[in-house]
Design goal:
Oligomer: single chain
Shape: elongated
Radius of gyration: 19 Å
Low-confidence stretches: 1-10
Number of helices: 9
Strand content: under 5%
Length: 200
């Protein structure tokens, strides 16, 4: 007989832990959710929980990774037709923005915790931003070296990273425009790519 803490059929214990963690953190915040609380909600002892996730930071990173947000940059839904550099860049930026929409609740949670100066959230946020910077920088150097001239791929990656964060903040603040955030973000991705490749 189930006590309600068992993972749903066909789902692993790890996924069950991640889902429960996100739910608890949404209610209590990152700082207000201890690993002991999470273990109790799942029906595990704390030692078993640490077997899956050695720290709360590892747990937060795993939530993002499970949603595909920490994957290496790749365009999974390319625009049909000619693959010009402008279209490739627009597709990449759109891919990242759509991934951010998919984990919007988690990002909102993390933003709140960062504003409260929670050390775990700050550390995960730093890791996420650094990872995005590194991935963008490699993608530019490998796929669009024409953008990597002075001041360099690192500077272009920083500018793109800041643009992506800014666009997502506009969405969260309700000032992005349009009824459909997915379409509005796609339009902004197209605009950014067209600006960067205006001389092509």
């Amino acid at each position: 007989m189930s006590d309600g803490n068992e993972p749903a059929p066909g789902r692993g214990q790890r996924q069950h832990i991640l889902d429960t963690a996100l739910s608890l953190m949404a209610q209590r915040g990152v700082a207000g959710t201890s690993m002991r609380d999470l273990a109790g909600a799942i029906g595990l002892n704390v030692a078993s929980l640490y077997h899956y996730f050695p720290s709360k930071q590892d747990l937060l990173v795993a939530v993002l990774a499970e949603r595909g947000f920490l994957d290496e940059l790749a365009i999974t839904a390319p625009t049909p037709g000619d693959r010009t550099p402008t279209i490739e860049l627009a597709d990449l930026l759109n891919e990242i923005l759509q991934s951010m929409l998919e984990v919007e609740d988690f990002i909102r949670l993390m933003l709140g915790e960062v504003m409260r100066n929670d050390e775990t959230a700050l550390s995960v946020g730093h890791e996420l931003i650094s990872g995005t910077q590194d991935s963008l920088q490699r993608w530019i150097a490998d796929d669009q070296p024409e953008l990597a001239g002075p001041p360099g791929a690192d500077a272009v990656a920083r500018m793109l990273r800041a643009t992506l964060i800014g666009l997502f903040f506009e969405h969260v603040a309700g000032v992005l425009g349009g009824d459909d955030p997915s379409s509005a973000l796609r339009k902004r991705a197209d605009e950014v790519a067209a600006i960067l490749h205006r001389n092509d």
